[in-house]
Design brief:
By secondary structure, this protein is of the alpha/beta class. It has 7 helices and 15 strands. The strands form 4 sheets. The chain has a 5-stranded parallel sheet, with helices on both faces.
């Protein structure tokens, strides 16, 4: 799910942007319309705790409070992709000194918004490929997610199976680790979490990975695993993951 905020004090462009985004991405996005700097800060800080993917900010009003709030949000939460909307790109950069990720010039069209989103989603995808902190038996490990094949739980001992034959062990609950790892991972069995980027084949009883290893899939989770895999591939093809 991509979380998007659109801040426009006069709501001139917010509704149009939302309409186009929903047409392009449907249920894959969550859009919130914001009418003030206060609403912007409340949404980003209090409601989402910084977990916002994209912010669209209309620069027309020359609103100093909005400028400062946008700048502060960008500095506090570097993960946020900030899009400034206006007519004059030079003015926007000079007035809204907030290091925008993208400048969207009016008139706003579906093509322009699609181009902006393609760029922003690619940036988000690169960021989401980042690192995972795992508290192992031998210390704290910083593990690139793309190197994880699967996780296995055996009486609360967690084994993280990595590429190149590496294994790191620790303790914990698979459910908690799944929340940390994110949408690329799926718990296909009570004792296993698999990295869907590594799946080659889903059979009736197991997942076959690209390296030939097999991970069991429980009967109750098989249908959900198939649906999750299809959804994952669809999001990947759209550049969302």
């Amino acid at each position: 799910m991509i979380h998007i905020g659109i801040c426009d004090s006069q709501m001139i462009y917010a509704a149009k942007i939302e309409q186009i985004l929903r047409k392009l991405y449907g249920k894959e996005i969550k859009v919130v319309l914001l009418e003030s700097a206060f609403a912007l800060e409340n949404y980003v800080v209090d409601i989402r705790k910084g977990r916002v993917d994209i912010l669209f900010v209309n620069t027309d009003d020359e609103n100093e409070e909005l400028e400062l709030t946008s700048k502060r949000m960008k500095e506090e939460y570097d993960n946020i992709q900030l899009v400034l909307i206006g007519e004059d790109s030079q003015y926007m950069v000079e007035y809204f000194v907030a290091a925008p990720s993208f400048i969207l010039l009016r008139p706003i069209t579906e093509q322009k918004l699609q181009e902006a989103m393609n760029y922003l989603l690619a940036r988000l995808s690169r960021r989401r490929r980042k690192l995972w902190i795992f508290e192992g038996q031998k210390g704290t490990f910083v593990i690139p997610k793309e190197e994880i094949l699967y996780l296995e739980n055996d009486h609360r001992e967690i084994s993280v199976i990595l590429t190149a034959g590496r294994v790191e062990k620790g303790t914990g609950k698979l459910g908690d680790l799944l929340l940390e790892l994110g949408e690329e991972f799926f718990q296909c069995h009570q004792s296993y979490i698999v990295n869907m980027n590594k799946v080659w084949e889903l059979t009736a009883k197991e997942v076959v990975l690209y390296n030939g290893e097999c991970v069991p899939v429980s009967r109750p989770r098989h249908k959900e695993m198939k649906e999750a895999l299809l959804h994952f591939v669809e999001l990947n093809n759209k550049g969302i993951l």
